[in-house]
Amino acid sequence: MNIASDRRFNLRSFLATRRSLALLVLIVGFFIVFSLLFPSTFGTYDNFSLILLNMSAEAPVLMAMAIILISGEIDLSLGAQMVLGGILCGRFMNVSGFSPLLSIIIVLLISLLTGFINGVIISKLKVTAFITTLSTGMIFLGIAVMLAGTGWTNFPLDFTAMGQAKLLGIQMPVFYMLIVVFIMSFLMAKSRFFRQYYYIGGNTKAANLSGIDIDKMKIISFVIAGFLATLAGIITAARYNVTLPNIGTGVELRAVTAAVIGGVSFTGGKGNVQDAALGAVFISCLNNVLAVLKVNQNYQFCITGIVLILAIVLDIKITKKAE
Amino acid sequence: MKKKITIKTIADMCNVSVGTVDRALNKRGRINTETRSKIIALCEELGYTPNTLARVLASNRRYKILVIIPKEPSDFFSLIKRGMEAAAEEAKKLKFDVEFLSPDRSIPYEQIEIISNLNTEDIDGIIINPASHLLAPYINGFVDKGIPVITFSSDIAESKRLCYIGENVKDAGHVSGELMGKFLNGKGNVIIMTGAENIESHQSRKAWFEKVIRNEYPKIKIIGNYYYNEKEAEADLIIRDLLHTGTDIDGIFVTSSAGTVGVAMAMEKINLELRPVVIGFDAVDYTKQALKDNRLTATICQEPYSQGYYSIKFMIKRLLEGWQPDRCFYYTKLNIALKYHSDIEKIDIDMLGKDSICF
């Protein structure tokens, strides 16, 4: 054994074990470079607030996806649940005349049901998560489209204030995002209950042997995911004062990309939600730059897809070398 | 990067304390059977093995292993002791102390005297070269008290000892008989020199040797059986007497290292036109030289260093990890030392840790 080589600094190992630091360096570097290149458009306080704001509405979906991925599954219905949540909320306020608070409560309760349906089909009927959530996503979206009509808008002021009011010059969704990220990070790190998702995702057989009720845990994860996606839909509706069926388009892809960039393994058992959030910051920075460069939004999908592949390949290479 | 599995991970997954996992893995303390099974199954699935070193270093416990090893024949047993001392040196950081007790002769009553006066209060394990089955009740008594016993070089299979490390006596006797038969070309007069009547390993070697000769080389006659009381000088005298009186000896089979040295000493003193074929045991320094000088024909070697080394290692494994051997016999490799292949001890040490134990 060469002791000298064991002590030599290995960048790959360093990056593989300190994902947060690597991401922060990447984001700061990104910001510095593009701030220098576009000082009046990119490198401003307002623009950085915008970067955070743009990702804030979808941040709960990202948290949901991160937990699902860590548990070794995937949920392709999050976008549909997000849309359904917003549309139902709008309908309850504008058609049923419910107060914003009551509408939100009812919609969140319904979200528990949509998540529960996913969880039961996957864990009890043993249909794969991919097929299940693809199918239920279409069902939820279909229901949303039927209920949406031309969309809902002109919501009560106390509802839109939720999404548009500012604190310290920053819109409220950013703070909701920080609260959600903080709570989920804390729970996944400190709560034994949530830590079980790492065990389930890492080695299902071992988790089963240790006495973890995998079916129950999976149902709960999809219920939480549905709840968070619906919350994202409500926040989006409040922020934009409108609900439309296409608002959640591509949110799953962005959530998976952000999670993988943040170090969440798509095979399960690895990663954390706070790094996934940093991954989302990176994606948001990237989208912001593309907007500054006036790149067509349709091309942004391609670019996001390319970034996802690169992130996965890089992650595999770094992790393998480090191991 | 794959997360390292620790005892804390196991405890967290099973929703038990670290202490409970520790008790389950080390088979001690009170623990629910179902919980123990769950923990063990999980460890197997995850490939978790406790970090023994960390646990031992963190604790204040010291372990004591007692080795009962004969003084004579000194050349042979000193090789075994060297192996033991090497293992003991490695085990120092694991807080193991190895104490050696050396009865003057490898005969039962002396061993019984030592064992019956033994204070076992602070002894955690015993390694012994038992001379006879008479020691079985004593070995069983230690085991019943929770002190594991490992035998080396000779064995008492019917006792409760943990395992035996040493030669396969049957193979040794068989190979000796085959060598004698082939060297004598299937005919001639052979005498057997046995160390002591009551040393069972010698009797076993003799018995298997005789079986091969009788069954496969019927023209070879065993014309005498002599006891040299494990003394080189006595073996020397017996052979010289026999040869001086004109006894027609074509082959000599010697059942132990001491006798082999004694016979080689005799060959040095006698001027013979044609020396008998001498098949003996082990390759101590004098024996190696005797092989080179053609005073001996071949000796059967049994990896004494490995016997010593592994007996300590296995005992440590037992005491630290609760290791249960998957078999009772761990046979060392049988080597044949010849004139041009006598540096057997070096081979023993070089091969250590690779495949020197036949599992």
3D architecture notes:
The complex is a heterodimer of chains A (323) and B (359). With 323 residues, chain A is an all-alpha fold. Chain A is 76% helix and 2% strand. Chain A has 16 helices and four strands. In chain A, the strands form two sheets. A two-stranded antiparallel ribbon of chain A has the order 1-4. In chain A, strands 2-3 form a two-stranded antiparallel ribbon. In chain A, a hairpin with a 2-residue loop joins strand 2 and strand 3. Chain A starts with a helix and ends with a helix. With 359 residues, chain B is an alpha/beta fold. Chain B has helices at 7-14, 18-26, 33-46, 52-58, 74-90, 108-116, 136-144, 169-183, 200-216, 232-244, 257-269, 285-292, 304-321, 344-350, and strands at residues 63-68, 96-101, 125-128, 149-152, 163-166, 188-194, 220-227, 251-254, 277-281, 298-301, 329-332, 335-337, 357-358. Chain B is elongated and about 80 Å long. At the A-B interface, helix 11 and helix 12 of A face helix 1 and helix 3 of B.
Summarize the entry for a quick read:
The complex is a heterodimer of chains A (323) and B (359). Chain A has 323 residues and is mainly alpha-helical.
Unreliable stretches covering 5 or more consecutive residues of chain B? none
Shape of chain B: elongated
Helix content of chain B: 40-55%
Classify the helix fraction of chain A into a percent range. over 70%
Strand order of the largest sheet of chain B: 2-1-3-4-5-11-13
Low-confidence sequence ranges of chain A: 1-7
Query: How much beta of chain B, percentage-wise?
Result: 15-25%
Taking all Cα atoms into account, the compactness measure Rg of chain B is 24 Å
Mean pLDDT of chain B: 86
Structural class of chain A: mainly alpha
- Let me know the average pLDDT of chain A: 86
Task: Let me know the largest β-sheet of chain B.
Answer: 7 strands, mixed
Oligomer: heterodimer
Supply Rg of chain A: 20 Å
Distance between the termini of chain A: 17 Å
Instruction: Count every helix of chain B, treating DSSP H or I runs of 4 or more residues as helices.
Output: 14
Q: State the total count of DSSP E strands of chain A.
A: 4
The overall strand count of chain B is: 13
